[in-house]
Amino acid sequence: MSSQPSVSIVVPVRNEADNIAPLIEEIMAALDGRWAYEIIYVNDGSTDATGDRLAALMKQRDNLRQLRHARSGGQSAAVRSGVRAARGMIVATLDGDGQNNPAFLPDLIAEVEKGERVGLVAGQRVGRKDTGFKKFQSRVANRVRNAILKDGTRDTGCGLKAFRRDVFLMLPYFDGLHRFLPALVRREGYEIAYVDVIDRPRHSGVSNYGFFDRLWIGIMDLAGVWWLIRRKKPTPEVTEVKA
Question: Which residues form the Glycosyltransferase 2-like domain (predicted)?
Answer without folding.
Answer: 8-168
